[in-house]
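Recap for those who missed Tuesday's class. We walked through two folding examples back to back. For each one, the amino acid string is listed first and its predicted structure tokens come directly after. Nothing is annotated here on purpose, so try labeling regions yourself before you check the end of the notes.
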Amino acid sequence: MDTKQTAVYCRTALADELAMRAQERRIREYADRLGHGKVTVYRDFGQNGLTLDRPSMNALAAEIKAGKIGTVIAADISRIARNYTLVSEWLDMLNTA
């Protein structure tokens, strides 16, 4: 039995609480539809997407490397990073860890 958790990652560039809550709600509903009942939520509130050095992103990466997270769901790839090269580098780093 796979005991890895599902992570929900949310990021907003602006300090907009309503946008963050709406993003999280949409992702949670999607995760529920896929059968990922209990999820761990990682939020980077008011964080720039041009870097991966964000508090919750760093925590998420550490949990993935530790083998605790098996699935990551985000509203859009741009929530992970605005630069697709950064996303690719992040995925490569996680796959080789």
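Example two. Treat it independently of the first, because the proteins are unrelated.
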Amino acid sequence: MGWVLLITAVVGIWAARWIRIDYYTEAPGDAVAVQPLVEIDGAPAYESDGSFMLLYIRRRDRITLLRYFQAWLDPDIDAQEKDYSEPNESPAELDALSESDMTRAQFAARKLALERIGERVEILEGLVVTSVVSTRPAADVLEPGDVLLAIDGKPVLPGDPDNVFTTTIRSREIGASVEVTFERDGETRTEAIETVSNGGKGDKEFPVIGLLADVRYEYPFDIAFGGEIETIGGPSAGLAMTLALLDELTPGELSGGGDVAVTGTIDVDGSVGNVGRVDLKAKAAARRGAVLMLVPRCHPPAEPDAYASPDDYALAQDFKESCDDEVRRADAAVDIVIEVATLDEALDALADHGGEPIPDVAVTTTTQSA
């Protein structure tokens, strides 16, 4: 009997390591200083004693049974069920979205920091590919960094004001092809790419080719983000990258000489957006000794009639409650947690806690160039 139980236990553990289920886990990741990961070519960079630390969580999709049992025992690991059959929720699509979000966050960080120190940023013709879905047709033709210049002969104007790229694809029958003109390494090419279904049902089904793209900017000098940033996906490091870049481009200690933990998306207009699991990120920040943490403000929902349905309004209420709860738990892990809604509010919060303000300059506006 003893041998039977032992063999059963061994087989069970072996099976638990290989059997995967439609659950994902989230756990505290780490806090990474951003300044050492910023490379500036063509302008002076200033050293600082303090740092801005981006925060990330460790997420695992389609976990094993063993990981599920580990989450059940560890209070710092959360396991949640997920329906991966929903449109835009496959592992390949989630990976592409995560990669695109990080790239777009870097675009916004560069634009905001450069304009803040008085440099001009131009919007150029075309769109830049930020990611491709590995299981979609675009992956056979395009790659991140390609510049989309035209689709079916229609030029993609600076900033794509008419959304010509997306609307042209959506106007096709599923299975039809579109002619995409793009530039790579100085060479212009035109290739046909077949459209496929996005996986939706009924009126939610439409044709796609499987890429994500963003506005194409021209910066006055080269700025690159390397190191761990290259392996971290999602948009939540946007504010941290913006502040770190500003600290590198200006004299003085924007952080006040200490290590400041930061999480929050950043938009090109300077607004700071919400991110998930602020509480888990706070635990990562505390492990690295951060005493000050900037997080996105939890905005209350709009009036009920601003939503498409009562269910949407209820979801907005739930999100606000969840956001407030995460900030409360973050406040228990880090000494000082400050909610901010814009880049200006973040700079004011740093100044209130010993940070040196950035020099006053005439902030320029982004211009378009055909």
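Answers for example two:
The chain has a mean pLDDT of 86.
The first strand starts at residue 23 and ends at 33.
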